[in-house]
Specification:
Helix content is 25%, strand content 33%. With 114 residues, it is α+β, with helices and mostly antiparallel strands. The longest helix has 10 residues. It is globular and about 50 Å long. One of its GO terms (cellular component) is cell envelope.
Amino acid sequence: MGAKGLLVDYEWCSGCHTCEVACQLEHGYPSDQWGIKVHEVGPWEYTPKTWQYSYLPAPTDQCDLCADRVAKGHEPTCVKHCQAQVLKYGDLEDLAKELARKPKQTLFSCEAED
């Protein structure tokens, strides 16, 4: 089995923070810690009537891709609860192919090294 990762399509992230809350509840993290954190980029106007304003969910060092859930055949809790369906879990090799097909995506590898 290949290395696993998380593909984030940040073009469509609404910044709802559901992934953060689901992760905190799943792992019992205190309110100031996350396994995934939504970052706000912007807002600023860079040409007339064109704005930079987006959100980017990013796994933290505490993210283990919900190893216990995945071992039971479930997807990571952030993926399951993402309301905008911008998070995708899978093999890094497969996710890298999807990454190449569309801009405004990023790929994270969250597994611990041996």
